[in-house]
């Protein structure tokens, strides 16, 4: 079954988004009620509702039920991208190694760009993440949270919005705790040292060293997973694993 609405509803969804941008609507703004939108767009109720449901699935709107309800503007995040990628990969029978290989290709490039483009505030946040991981090495939950935050900050610090969303999505799919990769404290300590090396290279604004440190870090992760959890990397990506 297609996740896309019929063509007329898709075209209407595009018009609604264009009007959101034109009006300068922000998160939390309420769109006109259904009767107004029906007149404004000159469409049937079924087409309008199909368009709104599609935009809700994409994270553009939330639909509030009841009196005084209706469509409310939201900000899309990487969740829908992760779901779409997961479904595409699942139907290709792609293993989790696919995500690891993609990260190995993308993240050194992001680190290279981030060395030149990261703001002082982003560097401060990155340093705070490194410190938080060190202070809570005994806690795997904190480790996983800081590990994701570290890579997210660098991706967004690259100055390329697409990289930020891609890494958000890829990390959402390749969540080690969810797919069965465990990190004993000795491994968490090794990851912390790798993060510290990357942070220092970024702080020095050294693109080559930043890219090399990131490439080494991702390679070490893949080698660890292949040595300890080969069956996990070889397992096919399944949406239910998210």
From TrEMBL:
PANTHER family: TRANSCRIPTIONAL REGULATOR, GNTR FAMILY, UXU OPERON TRANSCRIPTIONAL REGULATOR
Keywords: DNA-binding, Transcription, Transcription regulation
GO molecular function list: DNA binding; DNA-binding transcription factor activity
Record organism: Thermocatellispora tengchongensis
Entry-linked SUPFAM superfamilies: GntR ligand-binding domain-like (SSF48008), Winged helix' DNA-binding domain (SSF46785)
Highest taxon of the lineage: Bacteria
PROSITE patterns: HTH_GNTR
Domain HTH gntR-type, chain residue ranges per copy: 6-76
Full protein name: DNA-binding FadR family transcriptional regulator
Database matches in InterPro entries: GntR_C, TF_FadR/GntR_C, Tscrpt_reg_HTH_GntR, WH-like_DNA-bd_sf, WH_DNA-bd_sf
């Amino acid at each position: 079954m297609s996740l896309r609405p019929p063509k007329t509803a898709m075209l209407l969804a595009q018009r609604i988004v264009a009007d959101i941008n034109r009006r300068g609507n922000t998160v939390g703004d309420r769109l006109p009620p259904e009767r107004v939108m029906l007149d404004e767009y000159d469409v049937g109720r079924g087409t309008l509702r199909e368009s709104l449901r599609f935009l809700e699935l994409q994270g553009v709107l939330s639909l509030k039920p009841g009196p005084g309800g209706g469509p409310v503007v939201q900000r899309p995040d990487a969740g829908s991208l992760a779901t779409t990628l997961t479904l595409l990969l699942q139907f290709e029978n792609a293993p989790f190694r696919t995500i690891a290989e993609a990260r190995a290709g993308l993240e050194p490039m992001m680190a290279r760009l981030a060395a030149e483009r990261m703001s002082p505030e982003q560097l401060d946040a990155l340093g705070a993440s490194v410190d938080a991981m060190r202070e809570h090495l005994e806690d795997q939950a904190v480790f996983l949270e800081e590990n994701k935050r570290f890579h997210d900050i660098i991706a967004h610090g690259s100055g390329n919005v697409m990289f930020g969303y891609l890494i958000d999505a890829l990390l959402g799919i390749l969540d080690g705790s969810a797919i069965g990769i465990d990190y004993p404290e000795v491994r968490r300590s090794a990851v912390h040292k790798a993060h510290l090396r990357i942070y220092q290279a970024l702080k020095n604004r050294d693109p080559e060293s930043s890219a090399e440190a990131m490439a080494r870090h991702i390679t070490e992760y893949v080698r660890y997973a292949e040595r300890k959890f080969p069956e996990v990397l070889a397992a096919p990506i399944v949406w239910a694993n998210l």
